[in-house]
Design a protein that fits this description.
Elements (H helix, E strand, L loop, with lengths): L2 H59 L2 H10 L4 H34 L3 H7 L2 H18 L3 H23 L5 H16 L40 H28 L6 H14 L3 H14 L6 H7 L1 H25 L7 H27 L3 H22 L5 H25 L8 H4 L3
Length: 436
């Protein structure tokens, strides 16, 4: 690679870190404002709205973003892929919304919240599934600048909304939630203005032994070649198990916990999650990079070596937050939030494990083996469910943090074993998805 190529790659990587880091950094800035404006109980109410939407939106996507990205990166017509992915997203999202509304009634009764208000907010689940599918188009085309811009716009608008409400003295959790959702909808317009142009997602790895090694990830398809709805749905369904299980591993605690604990304890845990999630910007970028690079059939050790800078940044962020945690929490959030510290430290350890688990799962998905990536995620999901069954009613923030730590450990071990013994270096299984 030439010096110019290295420079451009470094600039793109730095831009992605800034864009993806903007969200968690805004979370760090706004979290003290939310804590002081709402208190532990109000913070729990805010989390009951926003975190459920985050989890349900990911579940409603049903593996469609992964299928969208892979099919576009393999050269299928962007317009056709978009049409199928959006129609499928709507079909999958509506049942999830209904299920979430029914669950919201249980949460409302347990925490003393308004069920109709929750039902209105949860409509964002449908919009979230559609937006995620659209993101898959841009990721598959390799034109990640538009995704970076969307992230940056969302972070900026969310910050402005929280600061504005805080400055006028608002103490309404629904008002802060509405502000965040409005920012999400406005920012998503960035990726809806047009479809991405069709071009190879990225250069192939030099050590590739696949057909992609000659210049692009996967063979270039004809612009007129139709996308098989059956093939697309089969890939989505296979990837969905892993996608849903992976999200559940990372977020199921925030969905289950409101039905098992008090509003105050849930408020403590939501703050701990906000702090511990900041380093996951590195995990998100690592997975995004690996899923595209893995299509080129490079060895796993080469894939990890080429993304070492991202890994180092992620670990460094974990260490920095752990060091600053003790003086920062009482200073920024107030003494009422001191119970957040132990749970955050546990979740920071889980964050490091999560980053690598997401990376290994992304490699399996990039190889066109969503079923195998699903096995790792399902293993973690089983551990999560078992953990909450064991803890039961009266779960605390620390209990939830320990369950998350164990869950991510199980997921990482399972993914490692699948890569070691599961034949991840075989020829792309997506050819089978096409019926070849």
């Amino acid at each position: 690679m030439t010096n110019t190529g290295v420079t451009r790659s470094s600039v793109r990587q730095a831009r992605s870190f800034l864009a993806y880091g903007a969200g968690p950094m805004v979370g760090l800035v706004t979290a003290p404002l939310l804590a002081r404006a709402l208190g532990p109980n109000g913070r729990g109410e805010f989390a009951a709205i926003m975190l459920v939407i985050t989890v349900a939106g990911a579940v409603a996507s049903f593996g469609i973003p992964a299928a969208t990205s892979v099919f576009v990166s393999r050269g299928y017509p962007v317009t056709e892929v978009n049409r199928i992915s959006q129609a499928t997203s709507l079909v999958c999202a509506v049942p999830v919304y209904i299920a979430v509304v029914l669950y919201g009634r249980l949460v409302a009764e347990r925490l003393g919240l308004s069920w109709p208000v929750l039902a209105v907010f949860y409509l964002a689940v449908i919009a979230s599934a559609s937006v995620q599918s659209r993101r898959g188009l841009w990721q598959g085309s390799g034109q990640i600048g538009r995704l970076d811009l969307e992230r940056a716009v969302y972070a900026t608008l969310r910050l402005l909304g929280v600061v504005l409400l805080f400055s006028v003295g608002s103490q309404s959790a629904p008002a802060f939630a509405a502000s965040s959702l409005l920012a999400f909808l406005v920012a998503s317009s960035v990726i809806w203005t047009r479809l991405p142009s069709r071009r190879p997602a990225m250069p192939a790895e030099p050590n590739s032994q696949s057909v992609a090694a000659k210049g692009a990830i996967g063979p270039t398809r004809s612009r007129d070649e139709a996308v098989s709805r059956h093939s697309f749905m089969r890939y989505s369904a296979t990837a969905a198990v892993g996608t849903i299980a992976l999200v559940a591993n990372s977020r199921l605690d925030q969905v289950i916990l409101p039905s098992l604990t008090t509003l105050q304890e849930f408020g403590f845990y939501s703050v701990a999650v906000t702090l511990a999630e900041v380093p996951l910007i590195a995990g998100t970028l690592l997975a995004r990079d690996l899923i595209r690079r893995a299509v080129a059939e490079a060895k796993v050790k080469d894939l990890l070596r080429r993304t070492i800078a991202t890994q180092i940044i992620g670990v460094a962020l974990v260490v920095a937050i752990a060091v600053l945690l003790f003086p920062a929490v009482p200073l920024l959030y107030g003494d009422a939030f001191r119970p957040v510290i132990p749970a955050t430290l546990i979740l920071l350890m889980a964050t490091v494990i999560t980053m690598y688990a997401q990376g290994l799962i992304a490699i399996l998905q990039g190889r066109g083996r969503p079923a195998k990536s699903s096995v790792a995620s399902v293993a973690g999901l089983v551990a999560t469910v078992m953990g909450y069954v064991y803890v039961g009613l009266g779960a605390t923030a620390i209990d939830a943090a320990f369950i998350t730590l164990v869950t991510q450990g199980v997921t990482l071990v399972a993914a490692s074993l699948l890569l070691r013994f599961g034949g991840a270096s075989e020829q792309l299984a997506i050819n089978k998805v096409r019926g070849k």
